[in-house]
Write a structure and sequence with these properties.
The protein is mainly beta. It is about 15% helix and about 50% strand. It has one domain (about 15-260): Acetoacetate decarboxylase-like, CATH 2.40.400. It is built from 6 helices and 16 strands.
């Protein structure tokens, strides 16, 4: 990441000003093939649904935040925590080419301050719940299984992935690369506009799942149409190791950008 001429970063564009740094670790990723028409109401203005080889996906992702800093500051009690999110995939044609990004439908975290800050800064759909996780590892540290749970309605729900495969770098053109390699986020705002923010991290390693499960009252958690879309087994699932990440400050898309949706 570059810095401003005076070392403060004051002359950087928002996409180059870090808002949050952390590690995202031990990602358990379940992917569901869904009809594109079911997702169009959730696509922010200025973006369009993205697909892999003609298939439109939503993903349920559980992972660990570690070493979290907000504007460079470690906030006690908010440094290490879990998150589980439901997301879909979009893209936007920017002046320098296509930007592939994610849109979050729901994000669960265990700390109220985290949810408040994310809603205030990004209008992200965060909710809070007691959470816990269990991760099993090989001797070399690679996670062979991960389960992320949250307590809601008086019971524990969860998402889990198990793998027996060795981790490999993401293969160019693979489904795993499509799911993991999104470096932009988009969120519809209360006034109907769209914000765009950049996320940077190195490429991850992954391993396909031997078993993957979502154990939850999906209708109560996510509502329609996801109660039906997530009712069966996932199309695919994998583990990813994760890495250090940086999330940058958001930019509101201009009216011209918000009205433009390129044809494929």
């Amino acid at each position: 990441m570059t810095s401003g001429g005076d070392g403060s970063g004051a002359d950087l564009a928002p996409h180059d000003k870090a808002a949050l740094t952390a590690e995202w670790l031990d990602l358990a990723i379940l992917n569901y093939a869904v009809p594109p028409d079911a997702l169009r109401p959730f696509v922010p203005p200025g973006t369009e649904l993205d697909d892999f080889a003609g298939t439109t996906y939503v993903s349920v992702v559980g992972f660990r935040f570690a070493s979290t800093r907000v504007f460079g500051v470690r906030i006690p009690g908010h440094v290490n925590f879990d998150e589980v999110n439901l997301r879909l995939y979009v893209r936007r044609l920017a002046p320098n080419g296509w930007r592939r990004g994610v849109v979050f439908i729901r994000e669960l975290v265990p700390r109220r301050a985290i949810a408040w800050a994310a809603r205030a800064w990004y209008n992200e759909p965060y909710r809070t719940a007691p959470m816990r996780h269990v991760v099993a590892r090989r001797d070399d540290g690679w996670p062979t299984s991960a389960r992320y749970e949250w307590r809601r309605g008086g019971r524990w729900e969860g998402v889990s992935v198990q793998t027996e495969a060795d981790p490999v770098p993401l293969v160019a053109g693979s489904e795993e690369e499509f799911i993991a390699e999104h470096y932009w986020g988009y969120t519809r705002q209360r006034d109907g506009s769209t914000i765009e923010y950049r996320v940077s991290h190195p490429r991850w390693r992954s391993a396909p799942a031997r078993e993957a499960r979502l154990d939850a009252d999906v209708g109560a958690l996510y509502g329609a149409p996801f109660d039906a879309l997530l009712s069966g087994a996932p199309q695919s699932a994998f583990m990813a190791d994760g890495s250090a990440v940086t999330v940058y400050r958001p930019v509101t898309l201009s009216d011209a950008s918000s009205q433009h949706t390129a044809s494929r």
